[in-house]
Design brief:
Length: 328
């Protein structure tokens, strides 16, 4: 069997805006001056933050990652056969750990041709590309280094195609923001393309709240680490030790809200923004939301975005769902 050398099966494009740092700083300014203050969740994931999150996914309280992977393992073959996809496009690919389940199913069906990891980390995209072309002898990888929230136009044309957004990432967007994102995604897809969406389901509130308030305190450290990242990118002098972790379920909006709460009043200087922030004792800075769904809400969101639900997969305890939809 003649195979193309691995380095010839990898293509990586970078689509990051040359003015991204300035745009990020302006976004950060708006968030810090908002009332109440908030921080963009993207600042969680530096090297230390990503390592902390990996530890979170292994905690007994944190059900989403292991539940989604088990569910994906159970239905991957069905998804591969139903979609007939030869190309797998992953938004927010990261380390592509769960992705291999789908790649294995596509390879077994004789369909696997191209994987398109879409991620903001050039290092991660390159590492994953090299790993996967070695693991799958016929696979080509077209990596896209970009923020999928802003650069969906970078998705290469191709068919038959399956686009995936896993890990309940969609929950980090408000309902309107989620529909806007998925509508832009739909506009980049061809009729008949499939889309697989991971969604954390509405369930007993104590189960949800424990997942964001682990007994080991790792989520709290993960939350505080966002301040270290903000300090680096903006020249700020936030002291993470002056903030406490807080996460609770907002019943009205069916979502987890995560905050950093100031343990004392203090002044924070943000040099690159020319800001002096007076942080009051007990002031809350929101760092993340994580919306929870049921089938009706996911169906409505997909239909409003130009998709039609094809299959609805859940685990036996109905903790998590995978929604397979088709471009309508």
């Amino acid at each position: 069997m003649n195979l193309t050398p691995t380095d010839q099966r990898i293509r990586i494009d970078t689509q990051m805006d040359p003015h991204k740092s300035e745009m990020d700083l302006e976004e950060l300014r708006r968030c810090l001056l908002a009332s109440p203050r908030k921080l963009p969740s993207k600042y969680f994931y530096d090297q230390a933050g990503s390592a902390l999150f990996e530890r979170i996914t292994e905690l007994p309280e944190y059900y989403p990652t292991r539940t989604e992977k088990a569910l994906l393992t159970a239905v991957a073959e069905e998804i591969s056969l139903l979609t007939g996809a030869e190309e797998l496009v992953e938004l927010g690919a990261g380390s592509a750990t769960k992705t291999r389940v789908l790649l294995d199913a596509m390879e077994s069906a004789g369909h696997l041709r191209l994987y398109v990891p879409f991620d903001v980390s050039s290092t991660e995209v390159q590492r994953v590309a090299k790993e996967l072309v070695n693991e799958y002898p016929k696979l080509h990888v077209h990596g896209i280094v970009a923020d999928f929230a802003h650069h969906l136009a970078a998705i290469p044309a191709g068919q038959p195609r399956l686009v995936i957004l896993l890990g309940s990432t969609i929950g980090n967007y408000s309902p309107d923001q989620a529909v806007s994102l998925l509508s832009r995604l739909s506009s980049r897809m061809s009729r008949g393309d499939f889309f697989l969406l991971g969604a954390d389901l509405i369930k007993d509130v104590p189960v949800i709240e424990r997942a964001y308030n682990d007994s080991a305190g790792i989520t709290g450290e993960f939350n505080r680490n966002i301040l270290r990242v903000v300090n680096r990118v903006s020249g700020a002098d936030f002291d993470p030790e002056k903030f406490l972790h807080k996460a609770f379920y907002n019943h009205r909006l069916d979502r987890i809200e995560m905050y950093l709460v100031a343990s004392e009043s203090h002044l924070v200087e943000v040099q690159r923004l020319g800001l002096s922030l007076e942080i009051a004792k007990a002031e809350e800075i929101r760092t993340e939301i994580s919306c929870k769904y049921d089938r009706a809400r996911v169906t409505s969101m997909l239909e409003a975005s130009g998709f039609e639900l094809s299959r609805w997969f859940t685990d036996p305890d109905e903790l998590f769902a995978l929604a397979l939809a088709q471009k309508s």
